[in-house]
Each structure stands twice: as structure tokens, then as C-alpha cells.
Design brief:
Oligomer: homodimer
Strand order of the largest sheet of chain A: 1-2-3-4-5-6-7-8
Radius of gyration of chain A: 20 Å
CATH superfamily of chain A: Aldolase class I
Largest interface: A-B, 59 and 59 residues
Order of helices and strands of chain A: EHHEHEHEHHEHEHEHEHHHHH
CATH architecture of chain A: Alpha-Beta Barrel
Number of helices of chain A: 14
Low-confidence stretches of chain A: none
Strand content of chain A: 5-15%
Number of domains of chain A: 1
CATH topology of chain A: TIM Barrel
Chain lengths: ~300, ~300
């Protein structure tokens, strides 16, 4: 099993869409360009949803056109439907990310469609994308629990994942949308998906209840090598008030790097970018790791030590 | 391997000693009495260190005398030396907790002794405690890294643990004093200690860099069944400014309970106690879990759903 993981940095999309203030297009571009220098395998740049639905990402076309692409980084964008895909194509994404929920109520609340309608709509996008050779990942929201419907049957995650894989998805992401996952469940779902799918599986975690990194570890131990994460832990879910954001990229990369796993990410460089987040979004973004520093940060011993232990 | 873990709630000692304000004795007692109702295996009540060194715990005698003891809960107290033990005996602890650091510089800074002096001093306490049948746990600070000396050789942790076990320690706690541990290291040290010690091993974690629960999971997977934790994630280390506190008991208990592990702890009852912490310590204590609620917390779907999907 490879000791290399791929991190998909989702803060420009999954983080900024939840911010109240519109981040000016040129600042978004500068932010994404800074992320591009950090060594990510993939960056989710924006979303081609209706500007009415998500006004903070209304500048998707300009952002995709404006970023400086670093070789080796896959640039992806969220696409809700066929119309979104048609818009996205002009931005030349390396892949697109489709989305639906595993739970019926969350799918209706978030996408205003039944799951049946969503599957049909995504299959349509998959068909059209295939014609132009555009790879599509599918993100399955609420795969580990739904704030409306509660516990989710892993068999339902697998059923939808297989249906979409059979329809041509290039990858499946199981999303813990509101931070309900626990390690034993992540292990079960990760093993199930990897066993039955021939395409890469990504795990998307939130840290709502402190279990983000424990869940990442549990997934890693089953062989999962792709993770979504958002710098500064940005993000959240409008349907679970108080739910905090995505697992923080810097903490995820730092943990795996500490364990000797190659993440591709330059953690110190990333921490530099994380420290710009408060300025970017216009509110105080706290990052535990940015405050504490990486694990081997050293402090000077108290000055009196040299006097008390002169022989040292 | 048993699916039951024991949680040692250390906030009354390891948490309150770091608070700036002195918590009135009767409030400490009420807090510990409330914790006693939550189902902990063990509560570290106070510290018999010099009132000059730790003025916030100067009321150790009164606190130990004042708490209401619940059968099944072990009440322990930190003891720095023989004089501390003599004081502690009057408080009738079920066990005492001795402490020294694995790293030389932290031991000197924190205890004003060399490690050699500490070992000799603890051996003296162990001998005297043995005479009166008082069990002694020994906590080894900086077992996973030192803010002054950096990386710690696991062989050093093992060497000190064995020396103290051979001298009569009833248990050893490996402490990640400033949150430097990572899961692969926790696995290594946990396996090493359990293999070579015939007494129970406890893991004491901090969440400074977000890895607290991931480390707990890694320890659990090696067979560790005892954990220190502090409600509300209270605590910290005076020598690593900015370092946040202990792994939060409510998040630790919630994770293991979600996984089907019996922790003995009533998480909802504990969250009720956690919500009193800000009042207790006179500053804002944030608890992610207290804010988000346990994982299966349900929200009402948006009202417009019923109109849009009348057939539902």
C-alpha cells in the first residue's frame, strides 16, 4: 500500500460558499494561486451553481479564467447539473465534481430534487461529460449521517456509489457533511466502497465533533489515499446550525506528514497561507496548528535553569 | 480485548491548576461532585504540591475532605514528593499520581530537579506508599516530545517506565504534555509499554495540534484501555505558550461511545457539566461537542420542503 496520500483542497469552493461576505474575485484568484504553490494534488476552485443560489461564488467563470495553473495540480469545480457543466467547460477544469445526498431529506433540502431525480440528472451529466472526455467525480453528501434523517445505512451509500460508478463516474467521494461520522463507521464504509468499486474513493470529513483526524486515520488504515480538506477548517452546512467546518487541511497534512506519509503538501508554506485567511474572509479564522506551530516547534528553556543547574 | 475503556477525568487538577483565577473551594467541590455522577472510572481531584508553586490548588486538603465519594469511582491526587504524600494520606485518596518528565530539560524546568533526582525521590515515595498500601500511578510527562528538547526516544520512555514499575508503581501514564504526539508514534510507544510492563498503561493526550482523538484511537487499537482527559479540554502547559489543553473528555467519551465502546460515561450528563465550566473558571470555555450536540442530533427540515414535495 502506497504511503502517499492526495489532498483535495476544497476551501475555495466548500469554504468560501459558506462565508457571508463576497470575497472579491482578484482575492480569490490570489488565494488559489497561493494554494497552488503548496503541493496539493487537487484544488476545488469554485462552483457552477446558480449565482442566485450561491452568490458568493457567482464569479466562477472569472476565477477559473484567472488562476495560474501549476503543473501536477488537478483543478476541479463543482457542477450541479447539465447547464452547470456547459458553463464549466469554458473554464477548462481538469475534472468536475457532481453532488447528491445519500439521505432523501438532505437531497431535497439541498438540491430541491428527490434522490431519484438527482441520480437521473447526474447520469445525464456523466453521459455528456464522457463525450468530451471530461472526468467527473461524484460527491455523496450525508454518507455518514443526516441532520434530518439521522443514521445512514452504509448499504445505501454503496448502492448510490455503484449506480454512479456504473454510469461513468471517475471517482466517488463519501462526505461527512455535518460531522456525524465516527471511526468505526468510517472504517466500515471505506472498506465497503473500496471492495466494491473499481474507481478511487475519497473521504470528505468535517470536524464538528472533534473526530475529523481520527476519522481520517481510520480511513487511511483501510487503504483510503484521497482526502478532501479545507484550509483553516472553513466551511459548514447551512442545515446544521453550529456545525463547524471541514477538517482543516493544515492539521490533516501535518498529522500524515508526522506519521511519515507523503502528502505532497509543504505544511509551513500552507500555514503561511492559512494565516492570510482572516484577511481574505473578513472575520477571525482560528487555526489551532497555525497558533501552536508544527509538532517539533521548540521553546527556549526558562532563564533560571542555567543558574540552578550550572553543571548542565 | 475488552470493549470497555476507563476514563480518568483530570480537569479538577490538570485543568484548574492552569487557570488564572482561584476557583472557590466550595465550587471545586460542587464541580467534582457533579463529575462523580457522570460515570468516570477515576477523577484526579487535586494536587498536593506547594501552595506557593500552584496557588490555585492550595485548598487540596479541604477539597479532598469535602467531596462526596461515589462508589466505583477512584479518587486520585497528584503528589510531587514524600512531604506531599504525607499530606495526601489525610485526604484518603484511593490512589496517588506521581510525576516526572522523560526529557531532562522539562523535568528541570517543571520540577526543579534532574531526572536522576526525580527517580530517586519517586522511589522513596513508592516505598513509603507501599508500607501503607496506597497505590501509586506514575505519570511520565513529555513522553511524546518536549517543547525544549524536541523529539523523545521511545526507549527512554520505556527505560523510565520500567524503572518505576520495578520500584512498585501500580500504573504508568505516558503523557503528551504539549500535544506533540502523532498516531504512528502513539502506536509504537503504546505497544512497547504494554509489551514490557505488567501494570496498566494510561495514555494522556493533549489536542494542541488537533490530533488528540486520532492519537486516542491509535492507542486504543493497540489495546490501551485507560485514558486521561479533561472536560472542556481544560489545561495546557506553562512552557509551551499557545499550546491548548488536554483532549476533551466529552469528545473522547463521545467518540468511543459512538464506536460502541463502553466508557461508563453518560455523555449527555457530562455535557451538562461542561456547560457550567465557563461559570466555574470565569472565562469562556468553548466545547465543540457541547455546541454541536451528540452526533445523532436531529434538525427540523426547512418548512418549504412539505410544499415543494407534497407527496412526501
Amino acid at each position: 500500500m502506497s504511503d502517499r496520500i492526495e489532498i483535495n483542497e476544497v476551501s475555495p469552493r466548500d469554504g468560501l460558499q459558506m462565508e457571508k461576505a463576497f470575497v472579491p474575485t482578484e482575492n480569490k484568484i490570489a488565494y488559489i494561486d497561493a494554494l497552488s504553490e503548496c503541493g496539493f494534488a487537487c484544488i476545488e476552485v469554485t462552483s457552477y451553481t446558480s449565482p442566485k443560489a450561491i452568490p458568493t461564488l457567482a464569479d466562477a467563470d472569472a476565477v477559473m479564467a484567472g488562476i495560474r495553473r501549476v503543473p501536477g495540480v488537478r483543478y476541479t469545480a463543482l457542477v450541479p447539473n447539465l447547464r452547470g457543466m456547459e458553463r464549466a467547460v469554458a473554464g477548462r477544469p481538469d475534472e468536475i465534481n457532481l453532488v447528491m445526498s445519500v439521505s432523501e431529506t438532505h437531497n431535497r433540502a439541498n438540491l430541491r430534487m428527490t434522490r431519484e431525480q438527482s441520480v437521473a440528472g447526474l447520469q445525464e451529466v456523466l453521459r455528456e461529460a464522457d463525450k468530451i472526455g471530461l472526468p467527473c467525480n461524484v460527491s455523496l453528501s450525508t454518507a455518514f449521517g443526516c441532520p434530518f434523517d439521522g443514521e445512514i445505512d452504509p448499504a445505501e451509500v454503496l448502492r448510490l456509489a455503484k449506480a454512479l460508478a456504473d454510469s461513468g463516474a471517475a471517482g466517488i467521494t463519501a462526505c461527512d457533511t455535518t460531522g456525524m461520522a465516527h471511526p468505526a463507521q468510517v472504517k466500515q464504509v471505506s472498506e465497503m466502497l473500496q471492495k466494491d468499486l473499481a474507481i478511487p474513493v475519497t473521504i470528505h470529513l468535517h470536524n464538528t465533533r472533534g473526530m475529523g483526524l481520527a476519522n481520517a486515520l481510520a480511513a487511511y488504515e483501510t487503504g483510503i489515499r484521497r482526502f478532501d480538506a479545507a484550509s483553516g477548517g472553513l466551511g459548514g452546512c447551512p442545515y446544521a446550525p453550529g456545525a463547524s467546518g471541514n477538517v482543516s487541511t493544515e492539521e490533516l497534512a501535518h498529522m500524515f506528514a508526522s506519521m511519515g506519509v507523503d502528502t505532497g503538501v509543504d505544511v509551513e508554506k500552507l500555514l503561511g497561507v492559512v494565516r492570510t485567511l482572516s484577511g481574505l474572509v473578513g472575520r477571525n479564522v482560528t487555526s489551532q496548528l497555525a497558533e501552536a506551530g508544527t509538532r517539533l516547534r521548540r521553546y527556549a528553556p526558562p532563564a533560571w535553569l542555567a543558574e540552578k543547574f550550572p553543571q548542565a
